[in-house]
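stage 2 :: seqdesign
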């Protein structure tokens, strides 16, 4: 299995706060969030790591990254879909190679989950993703004020990253997908009537969105012996 990794790091973190430093460059211990995310992939064998950066990124040049894999960068787009497509086109890869697409802000992904994703998808025709079952009670509101209904959570899962698909099929799915309906790579396949395989991951694979998430991520990384 030949695997490439794409790390989406083109966001500006509008929900993170007024700090001029995007969340992927915030520090946890002596590493940036992005550096912690990249370090997780030392657990697997991959051909290269391609990082999609914001066109006006001014932080990458001063960021220290330690990895046993070759690191390359490309220009991200205006959306996650565009950033991933740019990265896929920049890869030196064959259409049947596998690509793991990961959010830079998910620095706590467990190395065991990366290996499990590879193992479960080794013989799958196109790919799948890490997920976690929804455990909270989910409410629906038509006006963002009052509760209209409680949603049955028995069949609900939160999508995590990485998501892992064959390069040629992923490029085709993202190219054909409706940009307004494509929030992750799996959703592009769903639009084609295909059912990506779900692999259960751990709940500490959080996405850093708000400033308070940094301290929680630091706690999880320390628990994993990575901080």
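stage 2 :: out
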């Amino acid at each position: 299995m030949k695997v490439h990794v794409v790390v989406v790091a083109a966001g500006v973190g509008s929900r993170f706060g007024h700090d001029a430093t995007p969340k992927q460059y915030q520090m946890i211990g002596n590493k940036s969030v992005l550096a912690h995310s990249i370090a997780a992939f030392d657990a697997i064998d991959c051909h290269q790591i391609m990082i999609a950066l914001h066109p006006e990124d001014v932080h990458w040049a001063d960021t220290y990254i330690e990895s046993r894999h070759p690191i390359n960068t490309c220009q991200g787009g205006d959306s996650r879909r565009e950033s991933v497509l740019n990265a896929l086109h920049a890869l030196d890869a064959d259409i049947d190679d596998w690509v793991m697409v990961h959010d830079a802000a998910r620095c706590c992904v467990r190395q065991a989950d990366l290996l499990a994703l590879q193992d479960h998808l080794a013989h799958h025709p196109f790919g799948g993703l890490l997920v976690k079952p929804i455990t909270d009670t989910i409410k629906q509101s038509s006006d963002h004020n009052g509760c209209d209904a409680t949603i049955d959570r028995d069949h609900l899962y939160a999508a995590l990253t990485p998501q892992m698909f064959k390069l040629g099929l992923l490029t085709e799915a993202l190219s054909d997908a409706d940009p307004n309906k494509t929030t992750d790579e799996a959703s592009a396949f769903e639009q084609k009537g295909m059912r990506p395989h779900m692999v259960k991951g751990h709940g500490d694979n959080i996405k850093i969105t708000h400033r308070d998430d940094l301290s929680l991520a630091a706690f999880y990384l320390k628990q994993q012996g990575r901080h």
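stage 3 :: structure notes
- The CA atoms of residues 69 and 169 lie 24 Å apart.
- The domain at 3-223 is CATH 3.90.550.10 (Spore Coat Polysaccharide Biosynthesis Protein SpsA; Chain A).
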